[in-house]
## 1
Amino acid sequence: MEQFSNTETSLLDNHVDDHVDVEIQECLSSDPPKSFFMFAGAGSGKTRSLITYAGDDPKVIALKTALNVPFDEMERYATYVSDHSRFATHQGVKGLEYPRVMVILDDSEARGFLTDFENHIVSYQNLIEKADKQCKNTYDYLLSSDEAIIYNQDASIKTKINMREIKDVFTISVTIDNINDYAARAEKLKFLELKSKAICISLDDLMVYREFFDSPLVFLHFLQQRRQATQESKLALSDELDHLGMYIKHNMYCIQLQDYPDDAHIRFYGYREELDNYFCKLYHPQLCPPKPSLKIPDLFLKTINYLEKSDFEEKIQASNYLLDFSADARKQLCQSVEYALQRQPQVKHMISFGTAGSGKLDLRYTGFVEQPEVPAFTEEYKRQYTLSTLLWNDDPDRIMLDFVFDSNGHLVSFKYTQYTIADIKPTERESLWNMGKERANLRLNIYLKQHQQINPSDICPCGSGKKYGACCKKHLNK
Ligand SMILES: [Zn+2]
């Protein structure tokens, strides 16, 4: 205690930290390194300067470091060691590979499993619910402050995560035992109370994902769909590979369920055969099994590949946007791009293309294709063009897609920009409206030359996606 009171006096001295940086230098270069943890610990200048009088006695250093820890960290540490922590088990938090997205994994191991049915349910309940609860706790913990601190097992700080930069958090509850069949159903079982929307899978399935997904962007899109499937009571899949199989085939596979009644339990068969074959054949490499792949067109694959390598900040959003396209919508975009690539060199100017609709699932985009032999629109013109379309159509939002090709027709870059009405400055509103009006007039005249007349209930030729009576008939013929 004597040593303590001496310490207290020293700690009140504001000049005691004056040479801390020099001391750190010395500490780093000495052999063996001295008590480096102190500098990485609480981070206060006082703690660092303790080296001066703590000398080489590790106990004194530890004690004094502890005394300098800010109260909130101490409090968290106390919770942690008393096992009341929200992160008391072995969660893995994987976030570094994916900017702005975090994946929380919690693993559990069953004990006394599969002896009788009653036991089975109880073990299973413990297994999944416990992992789920930990996922939920970790999730709450991470989101409880702007900066989440992750600790090592010895309670030292492993890393700090700036939660303001995280846009999405996935929780995955992983069971060590192979309870594949139950894991896939666990999310829906009534006797389990799952709180975290966690995706329940076995460790084996996690390994399947590691083997299957080459692209982190595609994997993140899959996780989004997979999480949605946990909330879809109609979906009754009995195996994790069914989820993956359905994803490969349909991408947004939960949409397949929208036409069925709410109380239905729908099973899907035949989705996993290709995957089963692939994973079985892996044990016999001489068969060279082809990996089942996402049924998406080349343009989409190349665009996602491009995004993967780019440092574009919104790349996850952009790839999710493209991967959400239905098969028809993909085909339409590919045809539009293909048409522009062929037509633009002939007419020697850029042409735009786009889609419209006001529904939640409708795609609203304006697209441009750049190629070296065709003079390009300016960025400002493309922006105005897209915003004038948004204004004229009364869109809630509109995406601008820019595809850039080289002279060999290879995609060299891609840009995704989301616009809303808030992006229109009050001073440009009128000119953008007139731009939209001019374009609508032009399209209407072309249509009338071919068709002579339009009914109010027809889809408006201006491309807004609305009925003529509620669109150009109202706005143009005044
Ligand atoms: Zn119209």
## 2
Amino acid sequence: MNTRKSIVLLGTVLLFMSCATNPFTGKQTLALVPNSQILPMAFQQYNQFLGENKVIKGTSDAQMITRVGQKIAKASERWLNANGYQGYLKDYKWEYNLVEDKNVNAWCMPGGKIVFYTGILPIAKNETGIAAVMGHEVAHALANHGQQRMSAGQIQQVAGAATAIAVSGKDQKTQQIVGTAFGLGSQFGVMLPFSRSHETEADRIGLQLMAIAGYNPDEAAELWKRMKANSGGQAPPEFMSTHPSSDTRIANLTAWAPAARAEAKKFGVTTFK
Ligand SMILES: [Zn+2]
């Protein structure tokens, strides 16, 4: 890259950079590109993924994914509104899809674009187990973990890509850059791992969301016991590599369940499915 291009790019990055406090984590996060610009790129990636995979429609399982997703989305909105963050989700376009794939996995892209693989259904076991996974995945998106995992180089690329899209429409290379930034690795649809602290954060936030949505938070620990039993020592893909150990996770979720119930009570939710 020549110097002039670098300067233009740097200027672009600085233009887009601003700090914001994330309502879910209370941390200052770098909002490098506004949601209104970056989320449409995520939506494009999501649609491409759906186009290249077998989406299951109309079955009771597919309906369950949608039902749970809508409740978790609603819980997120209620929590945000109650805490003074009206409009935080204004650029979100929630969508929930079940995809035929034997991998034990699920993910949520920025902007509320969710995929569950059929391989996770037997371990989730029931609607409450689905809610525990859904809460966790949605929490990653709400806490902006995807952006935080990007390197400085990727931040520059995405800011540049956002400008390129604004100026000249989309192209293949831009899609690749954005895909990498959102964690869709070289194997399309396999999300890159989050850091251990992000996993723990998503567990805590997700537990509250599932409780506010009316699902029994005690079941999250049960889900992870099943994950542990199923994995034979190996964690499923989204939870790979830097995840907390299953035992730490189960202990945390068990310890946090009463606080999640207390949070749900603030929203008038006192009985749980
Ligand atoms: Zn996670």
## 3
Amino acid sequence: MFAVPPNTVALGGIPAGAHPALIARQYAEDRSRWRELLRYDPDVRFVALVDRTDELEVWLMSWLPGQSTDLHDHAQAAGAFTVVCGTLTERVARGASGERPSKVLHQVAAGQSRVFGPGYVHQVRNAGVDPAVSLHVYRSVRPAMGHFQVDPVTGLAQVPPAL
Ligand SMILES: [Fe+2]
């Protein structure tokens, strides 16, 4: 069952048929498009490009228990991800630069999606005990991520990527 949790960022100006959440769900449901690519890597979180057009990129990701991203954004890209199996925890940091951000946690179970717009800062983690798989759609391409940290005094701040 497909469900978008509350507090999901709405995307304006995108035709319904081209919405990243719809495309992510379609790819998630059609395993023939990516099952040969799927791997689980205990050392580095697994990411593979599934498809690329002039308007979007589709990425497959697997998450062993404990694997996570850092706190990041996707610059000016909009997008969505759908969980295929397992459960992911998304931590969203909201607030102006230099302000102490509010942090919101979303449990995203199999069949559920999250949508994001430009400048959306989040961290995704498999906090469960089972592996997870997800499909991610970025419009127009998956840009270099901006990396962030939350300072308890000064708030949300962009930082260089970890080496
Ligand atoms: Fe992300």
## 4
Amino acid sequence: MNTNLSKLDDHTVVCSAKGCRVNAAYGLLWNNPKLHTPERRKTWLACENHADSLSDFLSKRGFLKDAVPVSELTDEMS
Ligand SMILES: [Zn+2]
């Protein structure tokens, strides 16, 4: 099932969750208003297993702006 994610161009898209080495399926775009200008977007990569917990972590703090499939991420976002 994941073979299509293992050769995403030359990018390495590994989940951002601590200790997780699984290929990411989603990009979580977030912004911390105390640290970043409003236009700035930080990106966390999340695999299927961690997408919920990572997005929950960000949305509880009001940081989460968007979540997109990894295939829709651009270089500027990473
Ligand atoms: Zn993960």
